[in-house]
Description:
By secondary structure, this protein is mainly alpha-helical. Helix content is 54%, strand content 9%. A hairpin with an 8-residue loop joins strand 3 and strand 4 (148-155).
Amino acid sequence: MADVLGSNDAQQGKRQRKMSVASLPAAVCEALREHTLHFAACHGALLGAQGPFKHAPCSLLPYPFPASLFTQAISLSKPFNMLVDQCARDTNWLFRVVRTTVEHDEFTRRLLEIAERVTAEGVVQPLQLSINRSDYMIEQPSANATPRILQVELNTISVSFPSLSAKMCELHRHTVARLAVDLALTDTAHAEVVRGRPGLSAAMNATSAAEVEAALPSNASVREVAAALAQAHDEYASLVSAAGTPAPRLVVLMIVATTESNVIDQRGLEEQLWREHRVPMLRMPLAQVRATGVLMTSDCL
């Protein structure tokens, strides 16, 4: 842990830092910072490849988010996922639309070429699993305007942070609980930190797991993504078996960048997949797949 936090402390020691969070006293903010850094190190809320690792960017306290907009964003996940699925299956429409962009987008041009070639050769197996992440921000042009969520993007290719986001949720539950129990808040500081944050106030005063869940909703992303991958793995194994093909050992292949800084998040998903489902995952850049991969007669890689 010393190595994990040492690089950050060394850099911070070179300058005088003044930190204020929710009008809390400096000593309380410093205690929160320490709790946050140590929790991140203990639970793998980290970024980096080979180490020393750094803690993932985060806030010391959860940011207030309107409950109605949070519920709305969740309710939109299914229709957006269905929309993406239908677009992906209508290849004639998809190719026609994407072709209008490729003149000035080399990356998309290559994706289109690959998709058209695969479609022309014929899809080998019918199974598809889509893991998407829809990102939103709140728009409120003025203090009197009604806030609303606007979609920033819908990620369908590089969908990162299922593990880190779940750990961030647990981190904030931890820091809020410590605030309520043993950070020696004065009555004035307590009032400042919960002003305008009914959810935070409820979490700090929660006496049961259900009350904490209601105030600070849990994040099951890594568990649910791993379960989806495990189901896809099992379905594919059944497909291979039904075809009478000698079943090789099947693994989930994650394509990663050659210089990858998000290793810990990816390993968190890999570990969840193995621990809960006993499904192995391999992480490889495309260059390694090309150098070591073999396409079998059954068209399995």
